[in-house]
Each structure stands twice: as C-alpha cells, then as structure tokens.
Amino acid sequence: MQTANPLSDSEVLAFLVQVQRDEMRMPSLNEVARHFGHRSPTSVQRIFARLREQGLIQKCGTLYGLTAAAMQQRGIPILGRIAAGRPIEAIETTDIDEHVDLGDAYDPEQHFGLIVKGDSMIEAHIVEGDIAVIRRQQTCHDGDIVAAVIDGEATLKRFFRRQDHVLLKPENARFKPIRVRDVEIRGVLVGLLRRRF
Predict the structure, then answer these.
(1) Which end of the chain has the lower number of beta carbons within 10 A, N or C?
(2) Catalytic residue at 120?
(3) Active-site residue, from 10, 117, 120, 169
C-alpha cells in the first residue's frame, strides 16, 4: 500500500480507468482510499464530486461509473510543478489536471509527471517547462536525480548521502548544494519530456 499523500484528481482517475480496463468494474470509494493509503474516503469523495462535475464519472443510484470521456484518457498523471532552483510548494497541486501520453513506456500507477520550474539542473539537460517523469519510490542511490521534499517544499536535485547529512546537488555552477539532515524522497527521475506550458 502506498504512503498516504495528498491526492490529485488525475491520479485517482488513472486508477479508476486501470481497474475498469483490467477488471471490468468500478472500485468503491473505500477501495480507492485504501489503494492510496488513506484510512478515510473523505478526500476521495471530494475528488469523485469534481470528476462528476467534469463529466468523467457518473452516478446511478449508489454506484459510480466512468464515462466514455474518462476511458479515452491515457498516460501518466501530471501532479504539479517541482523546482529546479530553490524549493517551492509541495509536489501535488490542484491547478493542474491532465495526463501526458507516453504510450506504454511508463505505468501510470508507478510513475507521474512534474513540470520543471527553474534552471538549477540545466547541466543535466533539464530546463524550465520540461516534464520530469518520476518513478514512485521512497529510497534512492547516490547520484540519482530525485524529487525531494524538504520542510513541505519540493525540489529536483541529485542526491548524495553523507555521514551525518544529505546533500542535494544542483547541476548548475551558479547554485549551491542544499545540505539537510532530513529529506523525504517522493521518487527518482526516469525520463524527461521536452514540452512547453
């Protein structure tokens, strides 16, 4: 079961579509909540309400079903923005609700996209506006480029563990490394899409 993190509409929709395609059924509110590591379905109920307003799910009696428009959506969810510079707001945001279609290259249950903001990673050929494809995991190896959260703020940096701290290193000589004792790893960079927003 995944760690309970704030959910995006697109992340929940991707799960609903996958269950519908694989098992020919619609998961319940409680099942969706459990899948994402939430004890209460309250946050899922709010997302279901928004998906109904968008015409992506419909309710018949006590049951929900996906509309044709929802079943046409493909790709990994874009969960928000991430800083390639100074850390910015936490990864998941509510102002972005879309997918990027990368065919079958990435599993939407294991991967998500983040729009890069800033230029601290340009020497790794990561520039503002790129979509960083992140594989969900909470561990990494030295030298991995990671989506890291520090005190509630997210950044994209190269990870190095030292004896008594962690070094998050930019790939731009104009930026200094970030030295921290505690860091939360949300995932590791596994792909990059050059696209402007």
Answers:
(1) N
(2) yes
(3) 120
Which of 8, 10, 157, 169 is the catalytic position?
A: 157
Q: Can you tell me which residue has the tokens 């930026």?
A: 175
Architecture of domain 76-193: Ribbon (2.10)
The answer to whether residue 28 is catalytic is no
Domain residue ranges of the chain, discontinuous segments joined by +: 9-71, 76-193
* SS3 state at 75: coil
Per-residue pLDDT tens over the stretch 26-46: 888 899 999 888 888 888 899
Three-class DSSP category at 110:
coil
DSSP state string for 48-68: HHHHHHTTSEEEETTEEEE-H
Angle at 139 between CA 138 and CA 143, to 5 degrees: 130
